[in-house]
Design goal:
The chain is mainly alpha-helical and 674 residues long. The chain is 63% helix and 4% strand. It has a 5-stranded parallel sheet with strand order 2-3-1-4-5. Helix 2 (18-32) packs antiparallel against helix 3, helix 7 packs antiparallel against helix 8 and helix 13 (206-219) packs antiparallel against helix 14. The longest helix is centred in the last third of the chain and has 23 residues, at 470-492. The protein is elongated. Mean pLDDT is 89; it is low at 629-638.
Length: 674
Amino acid sequence: MDRSRFAQAVRALSGSQYEDCVRLCEALLDEYGPHLDTAMVQAIALCESGQMEAGSACFDALQSAHPDHADLLYNRASVTARCGDHEQAVTWFRRTLIVDPDHHSARNNLASSLLELDQHEAAASCYEQLLARQPGHVGALFNLGNLALMNDHPEQASARFSEALRRQPDHTASLIGLASLANAEGRYQDALERLSRVPVTEQRRASFYRERSSACTGAGSFPQALSDAQRAVEIEPGSADLTNNLGVCESGQGHLEAAEQAFRAAMTLDPGHVQALANLIDLYELSNRMDDGQSLLLEHADLIETQPSLQLAQARYLQRGNQPEAALAACRTLMADGQADRLRRDASFIAGRAHDVLRQSQAAIDAWTLGNDLVASMYQRDQLGEETLVSILPALARHWLQPMSAKADSIERPPVFLFGFQRSGTTLLDTMLGSDSEIQVMEELPVLNRIVDHLQRQPDFPANLYQLQTEELNQLRDEYLTSASSCLLEATGESLDRSKLLIDKSPLNGIFAPLIQALFPEARLIMALRHPCDVVLSCFMQEFTMTPFMLNYTSLKGVTSVYEQVMGLWLNYLPVHSLAVHTIRYEDLVTNKDSSLRALMAHIGHRAEAVLGDHTDHATRRGLINTPSYHQVSQPVYTSARYRWRRYEAQLVEVMPILEPFIQAFGYAEGDEG
């Protein structure tokens, strides 16, 4: 036989040039007569080209002549599996193994076809048999890990993936598998580290971009997450899972319309995709489109009983709809031992709010404690890195408690800085202020932090602030404004508009007040205050986006400690720095809105009329509000959260000695709490 022409036929088969392959094989068979390898290649090419009947006839004839030829049986099984007939493929793979029990590829592919048929136990048994015959088979190790992952056995999955990587350190599928596990547990930095080890040549898989997108989302790198999610969908446009993940990333960027379209597209690709449905319902709740979410819940009521993610969504809607008893009933099953940590965590915070509405204080604290404990345990699994904010507070107290000599030059219309400890009403206030068309609010963007990062990279931070001269401070001020423009554009799609009054709202920026004064000597500051006990309690009630710093908020003692340091530093600044600050109390804002806002607007030198109306329309038009107050600021001003702490005095007894000096310093005498 002409070996060169046979090799040409094999190359045509490998290059998916099936018609050429069949033609070459037919010519060889006509010229040289029957030949097993040539006829087998022809049969494969016929099947691959869609001519299954002709291909099967070729295989039948070959098997009549060679009934116990293992490779013939294996190739027939493999091409049958590739053509989607896994039931028939299983038959041929089993016959291959009867002829040759050590045909490892046949055993591995038999397991793959069993997986396609959802016969997980049989597939696992095949992989175990393969490992027994060929210890260290990387494919079998990975597939057993994947099976464990599918069956919710993360520890077994991790062990299998890790063993596969021990055998083959650059095994891409196992690296992605471990990244998937890390993402599921909230260990986002660990996931990114695993993915960084994937060879560049292998970074073309949709699963790689999916997991990196999830890790970047968890780590707060939303632009990269969105880019990766889009790339994954480009690679596999028919994947409902990847399209759903794209929706999650669009939502994280605040692209509500794009997120809604992606979730609906995922549901079109797979009408049974419950997570996409749950995500869409959650998106409606987060953007205060409660009627749309309720309609979806009613439309899919038959699924709720069996789908925990929909049960959680329903509980959230019930709690927000002022049906606390029904919300609690929905949460009880989700909070039970044996449920996934994420479900238990989210349900615990919902249950806590429902108990609070029912004035069941101890039950509320117990639920929030469970939720916070789960948050802490989940996120402490990750390598979260050094906590910088808390660590620099003592240094700020040592070095920034003296007047500044040099300051930047004045500019026209400097920003207004709005801050206050978390849960002190800053989001409510910025929503009211943002209703004025001549005000541009920059909500919790890391603009000032970038200036702090710049200073930290220089020697002698934080004392080095006092060594800067006017020209250097001018450069930092200009850097702030440039960064503000880029951050606003990225977050909102709008550039910095210098014709409007910029309000930089970030709760903890008060600790950088001396830096603000150095950069903008004429800047007006707004300090939002709330009763210290209510602040601490409210922080403990919230399910914050987790960072190393926010881990402090998962216990009453932890958040009280941070409050003591942050607000203590603020009180120490006041007698040293001549800060143009106006203090507004949450309690006054919700009981005497107009007079409180008029005084504030007079302080910043801006008209008051535009912000005295109903802020709820502006809140609704804003869409997604990325703070825990998203559902509160869209409502008319209410006073039910004012002095809530009185119902929790017994639970706050341990932290009261720390908070008492601040209660006195901020004028919250007992008589003010009527």
